[in-house]
Amino acid sequence: MPASAGSPEAPPEIEIPGQALAIWAETLYLVNLLLAPGLAFLALLWLYLRRPPATPPLAVCHLRQAISASLWAGALLVFANVLIILLGGYSAPSTWVVVILYFTTCHSTLVLFGVFGLAKALAGQQYVYPLLGRHCD
């Protein structure tokens, strides 16, 4: 359908090198946190290890950020479980305090970082996760 004389035409889609891979990296990071922990992380690692040597910097940056944040998420989850065990096990009342604090602070923050990372990947921009990320070269 032709554009009318008074309406602006849509800008042409510009392919940003590495954008698709960056979007996949951030998507797999969020899937790892929300839907398929472990399985999505393995897919993310596979994506990182199978990337070509001439991968665009945008994709490498998002892949490294997503892997780094996933490792931190795993470490924080292990820490929360160790804390639960030290405080009396899973049947102790303090278990729920640790679980609620973990999910309201750590997990939700990690998810929010992933949403920001995905938004940046969709925009074709680099993103460094606050506190967790490594600077992109």
Which runs of at least 5 residues are low in confidence (pLDDT < 50)?
A: none
Residues in helices, as a percent range: 55-70%
Helix-strand category: mainly alpha
* Most strands sheet: none
Kindly give the count of domains.
1
- State the end-to-end distance: 44 Å
Q: Name the beta content range.
A: under 5%
Overall shape: elongated
What is the number of helices? 4
* Helix-strand sequence: HHHH
Residue-averaged pLDDT, rounded?
A: 87
What Rg do the Cα atoms give?
Answer: 19 Å
Number of strands: 0
What keywords describe this structure?
single chain; 137 residues; mainly alpha; 4 helices
Molecular structure report:
The chain is 63% helix and 0% strand. It has one domain (19-49, 56-122). The chain is built from 4 helices and no strands. The longest helix has 30 residues, at 57-86. α1 packs antiparallel against α4. The chain is mainly α.
Topology diagram in text:
Elements: H1 19-34, H2 39-49, H3 57-86, H4 94-122
Helix pairs in contact: 1-2, 1-3, 1-4, 2-3, 3-4
In short:
With about 140 residues, this protein is mostly helical. It is built from four helices and no strands.
